[in-house]
Amino acid sequence: MLEAQDIGVSYPVAGGARTVVDGLSLRLARGEIGCLLGRSGCGKTTVLRAVAGFEPLQAGEVRLDGRVLSSPGRTLPPEQRGVGMMFQDYALFPHLDVAGNVGFGLSRMPRRERRTRVAEVLELVGLPDRADAWPHELSGGQQQRVALARALAPSPALLLLDEPFSNLDIDTREHLAAELRAILRRTGTTALLVTHDQAEAFAMADAIGVMEQGRILQWADAATLYAAPADPFVAGFIGRGRVLPAASLGLAGSGQVLLRPDRLVPDRQGSLRAEVLAVSFRGPGRVAVLRLGDGALVEVDLPADMAPAPGAVLALRLRDEGLVRFG
Ligand SMILES: Nc1ncnc2c1ncn2[C@@H]1O[C@H](COP(=O)(O)OP(=O)(O)OP(=O)(O)O)[C@@H](O)[C@H]1O
């Protein structure tokens, strides 16, 4: 099991230190796939680097299967952690063929065993026939698979993945995300993934931590993040929708509500009025941007047979059962 408890990481900057990870905790059970999701600069990569042993901790502790890997003043070197890595700049060694790349971390293994293990992981990532190929002969997606095979070959207790698909086109990315999840499941590998791409997080992870400014705001599965966001930032960040004052929707109370695009339904009997600003086809229906009476802008999904013109005024009904409210 991976446990990070109240960890803090700072970088030295002119005239002091800048805290980039601030009291962050997470826990991954063995075989579980976790994901840190957040905007660029929120500290995701720094967390991975700290777990990998490339950044010292100023506070807290990182443990893997009960063993302390990092605490302030004590950083076990990366190669002694039993942690595999596949980072953004996953570049393969150009002077080694595929088998050489995949076997790189197995230098202590007898040659015969190493060859068997290399064949095994190449089979696992769907490249059983490419052991003799050179990196430059492979497509981006194939290189990515080789990098994954290289990371999996030593059977790490934990695999760290930093934006593993960022260099690939979207089709390859979606395909590989599903495949990678299946491979991690099959091998029972515990993994921590970092991405700013929600679709990737949803496709891969059992548990997702939404990060903002060095902290995890909520750690939960995708469905929970969507249906029961813990705070307005998570609500606005996950899925489509807007956080609005309750009053904008004619609701009592001074707090805010999360309005998903399916919550406002065109209905002649409805009590809300909104002006249509823009309509676009999204298939099978359309999406409209509307301006409510108090000026708030919202996005609403329209049925396929509705195509109002900009400037039209729509009557709407709020589906308010189970509406998420804050404050
Ligand atoms: N070596 C460093 N020295 C000083 N500041 C750093 C260093 N590395 C990262 N930072 C800063 O720390 C903050 C967090 O960076 P980090 O790379 O962890 O974020 P991230 O969420 O992974 O972003 P991205 O998705 O862009 O990689 C950023 O503001 C970054 O500029």
TrEMBL record:
A GO term for molecular function: ATP binding
Domain ABC transporter: residue ranges: 2-238
Pfam families, per the entry: ABC_tran (PF00005), TOBE_2 (PF08402)
Protein name (database record): ABC transporter ATP-binding protein
Annotated keywords: ATP-binding, Cell inner membrane, Cell membrane, Ion transport, Iron, Iron transport, Membrane, Nucleotide-binding, Translocase, Transport
Stored InterPro entries: AAA+_ATPase (IPR003593), ABC_SmlMolc_Importer (IPR050093), ABC_transporter-like_ATP-bd (IPR003439), ABC_transporter-like_CS (IPR017871), ABC_transpr_FbpC (IPR015853), Mo/tungstate-bd_C_term_dom (IPR008995), P-loop_NTPase (IPR027417), Transp-assoc_OB_typ2 (IPR013611)
Native source organism of the sequence: Luteimonas composti
